[in-house]
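Example record

The entry below shows one chain as it appears in the dataset: sequence first, then structure tokens.
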Amino acid sequence: MAKPPEVQYLTIHGHKRAFVKAGSGPALLLLHGLGCDHTTWQPVIQALSRRYTVIAPDLLGHGRSAKPRADYSVGGYANGMRDLLTVLGIDKVTVVGHSLGGGVAMQFAYQFPERTERMILVAPGGLGPEVTAALRAVTLPGFHTAMGLVTLPGVRHLTTAYLRALAATGLPVTRDLDEVAAIINSFRDPKARTAIRHVVSAVIDWRGQIVTMADRAYLTAAMPMCVIWGTEDSVIPVRHAGNAAEMAPGCTVEVIGNAGHFPHKDHPQRFVKIVNDFIRTTQPAAYHRGRWRALLKAGRQAPLPENVTRLPAEDIA
């Protein structure tokens, strides 16, 4: 197995940003999900770096990046990614976002269409209100104290070992529990717990997701978009893939069987093939202010480009 790329650091706006960079070619920005870091992409970084310049950061408040008292909204994250890419000298990217990172990817494309060539969304937030109760619980007042107890050394080791043992059974209901164990382990840092609570509070309340792309999905008519989901996702339901097809009829939807909330880890070869095929068969978006203005004026009634094929929601598994 190839050695993972070395973690690099940049200080932007006074805060340390950790990231890995590998390969050469067109730029691919990989954005991880809530409570994760760049290592969630390790199963696919090497294969993707054969064709692309891969940049996989730790979002602020996650992994090895700083965890300050700061703006943890999806808009704030999008700004941070713009600034990181600017410092790295990268003008345009295909942005790939998983879960929370999918929401950040959508916001990045909305705020900076001139810098976004394509969107690839992996089980993303922002396509419907439903979300697992565990994420809603993060917004409750007692989360910080409860997680502080769960992450005490002895309790944390027992909890994470139990979750990993359940995951090892291979039962569908235990899928992704190894990832949950890794996230709980990261919560031993009080600053990480505080940051995560701020992140979740910005996008979720007790009723579910509060940030949506529904009102702006028509803008994807000007940008290639691919949505990838696992059939056994227990965090964000796979039926949201059907929502994507309705909101953005020109998007490509790929539903991967026998995969949970992390399809890029469950089936890395299939995932890489989907990404390669999508990039190979689509032209990068070319930002034009006049066209963008026309889309905004037309709103949700904006017509699709002539070369876009509609994918009916009923075709989604």
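Notes for this example: The chain has two domains: 8-129+211-315, 134-205. Residues 21 and 55 are 5 Å apart (CA to CA).
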